[in-house]
Specification:
17 strands; 7 helices; 5-stranded parallel β-sheet; alpha/beta; 325 residues
Length: 325
């Protein structure tokens, strides 16, 4: 069993930014990046994004996996110890905190590591609909982030579809009008869940159409390696009628699931499962435990804001450790 001053759990921009800051502060952080933790590869959601054009410092853009590989190398360069194991259990009842990994089978179930402070940066995963064709055309026409992917050339001046009926769906649809030829929003019910202001804007937008009582049933596209999405099967749930429509992009706006199960019942979560932090900080309800990135951010969910919150968590943890010594 090893002891560290700070352990970071996660592998996305928030986790690696925290690691870089803590390493430079000579606190020798340990980062558990996970082994397909929550079904996502090390590097988080960005590893499923083909091209990133809105992360400062890369005017020509770069792939999501490449960005995360660069962050990982930078963490290691400054001395972060990165362990490719998934933390499966935490004991936060007293300090030092105790952490177990999935494969920890030591004598007497001893923890794999103890820590004076823990940073939770486990992220969140966009909900998928598991439509036929979804896996094949994910990131080749299907996305869960219009702000991240909407400007990609494959969507320019093409018919685009959004699934969802809340504020996020309305915001994404109107954002996509900058790029697509027309945006259609599929709403399962007979009305929008979005706020009245957002609903009114969406319904009045000349480049948007809202189809109520409608669901997607299949994603269609090119039958070749890395083929692109070209169509969508849409069903009217009242009449049962189905049709095939031209669609070069499909954006899910049906919510995210924060990866907060590890700390459920240990720190305060909101009604959607996101870790609650003190506004303007990474402090959770439990001293010594900090949260950053998408596991505590339900609003922005961008690589750059995650990185910023990782910096906050590192500085908060550094201050906590200094005051505890």
């Amino acid at each position: 069993m090893s002891h560290s001053k700070v352990v970071i759990i996660g592998s996305g921009p928030a986790a690696h930014t925290a690691a870089i800051y803590l390493s430079r502060a000579e606190l020798q952080p340990v980062l558990y990046e996970g082994m397909l933790a929550n079904g996502t590869a090390a590097g988080g959601q960005l590893t499923t994004t083909t091209e990133i054009e809105n992360f400062p410092g890369f005017p020509a853009g770069l792939g999501g996996a490449e960005l995360m590989d660069n962050m990982r190398k930078q963490s290691e360069r400054f001395g972060t110890e990165i362990i490719t194991e998934t933390i499966s259990k935490l004991d936060l009842s007293e300090r030092p905190f105790k952490l177990w990994t999935e494969w920890n089978d030591g004598p007497d179930d001893k923890p794999a590591r103890t820590a004076d402070a823990v940073i939770i940066a486990t992220g969140a995963n966009a909900r998928r609909l598991n439509l036929p064709g979804e896996e094949k055309f994910w990131q080749n026409g299907i996305s869960a982030c219009a702000v991240c992917d909407g400007a990609v050339p494959i969507f320019r001046n093409k018919p685009l579809y959004v699934i969802g009926g809340g504020d996020s769906a309305a915001e994404e649809a109107m954002f996509l009008t900058k790029y697509g030829s027309h945006v259609t929003v599929l709403v399962r019910k007979d009305k929008l869940r979005a706020s009245k202001v957002m609903a009114d804007r969406l319904l009045a937008h000349k480049k948007c159409t809202v189809r109520f009582n409608s669901v997607a049933t299949e994603v269609l596209g090119e039958d070749k390696p890395n083929g692109l999405m070209t169509g969508l099967r849409v069903k009217d749930i009242i009449s049962g009628a189905e049709e095939t429509v031209d669609a070069n992009g499909l954006f899910y706006a049906v919510g995210h699931d924060p990866a907060s199960a590890l700390v459920k019942g240990k720190v305060d979560l909101d009604e959607d499962g996101y870790i609650v932090t003190v506004p303007g900080s990474s402090l959770t309800s439990l001293p010594g435990v900090f949260a950053c990135g998408d596991v505590q951010d339900k609003r922005y969910r961008q690589a750059i804001t995650s990185a910023g919150s990782g910096c906050m968590a590192a500085l908060d943890a550094e201050k906590f450790i200094a005051e505890s010594e």
